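Issue: ligand-bound run for 2-oxoglutaric acid - logging full I/O for the record.

Environment: standard queue, default settings, no custom constraints.

Inputs:
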Amino acid sequence: MGELELRGFRILPGYLDSAQQISLVAALRDVVVAAPLFSPMTPMGRAMSVRMTSAGRYGWVSDQTGYRYARRHPDGQDWPAIPEAVLTIWRDLVSAARTPDCCLLNYYGSGARMGLHQDRDEADFAWPVLSISLGDEGLLRIGNTARGGSTVSHWLRSGDVVVMGGDARLTYHGVDRIRFGSSSLLKGGGRINLTCRVVD
Ligand SMILES: O=C(O)CCC(=O)C(=O)O
Ligand SMILES: [Mn+2]
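Outputs:
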């Protein structure tokens, strides 16, 4: 399976085979039991359409006071450990020198999307963000390092992995829509995206 590059994003289609996807989903089920999905509120006071949780030393949260990394789930408990299968992908594609501090889990149900944004709440942009897609296909839109300008779009499928680093670390990106029901990986459909980040 070929690898492709889109505006500095390194895209690895089908990086995970179907057996790997199934076992990763099983590990993520444990994460979601320990740290239930929640619907973050934007600082504007609107609920995001994506539901989220995290694993690792930090989780990403959002509420009226803004976006930030937090040591605990909104319910008060520590975040669960990042699954070993995720750390293996990180070691293989990013670095064995340091593990990510946060693995953010986004769940896109029918109609969920994510607007164009930069990932810029981390302290050191020398570390890439590693993204893993599972379940239904999602239409990734990639813009530029500054707001505005042209964009390109690419359908991410289950098992695809993207490394957002280097000159593209601060490139705007978002998910316009998912093809709900396009994959049978997740019972009930939907799309999971994991993003692993070094935070501090
Ligand atoms: O769902 C995706 O593919 C991207 C998610 C994302 O950009 C984020 O969580 O910051
Ligand atoms: Mn992002």
